[in-house]
Design goal:
With 118 residues, the chain is of the alpha+beta class. Helix content is 17%, strand content 36%. The chain is built from two helices and eight strands. An eight-stranded antiparallel β-sheet has the order 3-2-1-5-6-4-7-8, with helices on one face. The chain starts with 6 loop residues before the first strand and ends in a 7-residue tail after the last strand. 34% of the residues are buried.
Amino acid sequence: MTRPPLRVTVSFPEGTVTLLPRRAPVGHSDPIRGTSLAAYPLGESGVDAVRAALAAADAGASTLHPAVVEPDQQPAAAVLGLTEQQAVVVGVALGLRAILFWDGRRGSILACAPADQT
């Protein structure tokens, strides 16, 4: 993904929720209440690349939820319960420039610069 995410819509069994930086969630926010969420555009490698990056970041067993990242309407995977640091490590491993991260209270865009470019 070349442009930073502007918002993400995540599908949960209970319904969808849309997250925007510095805004309240829109839709069914029960699944994210009090927990974090990181959204990763899938790119060509797909879900397997996200799972591998989560394992490498020692993020534990994570359930992936289908999502769409805008502005490009790109398929994505949303992961609940990561710390901000884990979310960035996974983003770096996936080669992303930025991700949308929900910290349990508000959304923000996190830069995912490789260690040699910080």
